[in-house]
Structures are given as structure tokens and as C-alpha cells.
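Late entry, written up from scratch paper. The run itself happened at the end of the previous shift, but nothing got recorded in the book at the time, so transcribing now.
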Amino acid sequence: MSSQLEDLDSKKSSMDKTVKNLKDQVEELTDQVSEETKAKLAANNKVKHLQDELERLQGQLEDEEEAKDAVQAKLVSTNSQVKKKILRIICIVIVFSLPLFFSSSSILS
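Output as recorded:
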């Protein structure tokens, strides 16, 4: 009977060690899962932040393209107005120069 008790004590001791090892493994795995979860949450937050930044930059780009188009349209309009004014000035210069030209050519003849 004493031998049976020793066997039972030995088995109990062995089982206690196994239970402790399993508990340690569960704790280690729980810590690992917790760290991985934190890393995934951080990665998800970064992805969300980058998506928001991308949307903001795309909106800014659209605004800048619209502003560029408006400036180009204004430039075309202003360029057209400048050309018309230059033509008017040239016409005025020609009109005022003609009498001088004719008067100088009549002097020569």
C-alpha cells in the first residue's frame, strides 16, 4: 500500500508539473495574442490615418486643379484683352502717323 501511495504521489507530482507547464504556456500564448492584437490595432489605426490623409490630399489636389483651370482661363481672357488693346494702339499710331507720312512725302515732291 505504501508503494501505491508513492506511485500516486509521483503521478500527482508529475501531473502538477504538467499542469504548471500548461498554465505557463497558456499565459505565454495569451501575452503573445495580446501583443499581436495591439500590433494589429496600431496597424489598423495607421491605415485609417493614411486613408484619411490620402482623401484630404486628393481633395486638395482637386481644389488646386480647379484653381489652376480658373487662372488659365483668366490668363487666356487677359491675353485676349491685351492683344485687342495692342491692336488698338497700333491702329491709333498708324492713324496719327499717316498725316505725318503724307505731309513729309508732299514736301519731298
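The chain has a mean pLDDT of 92.
(Scratch paper discarded after transcription.)
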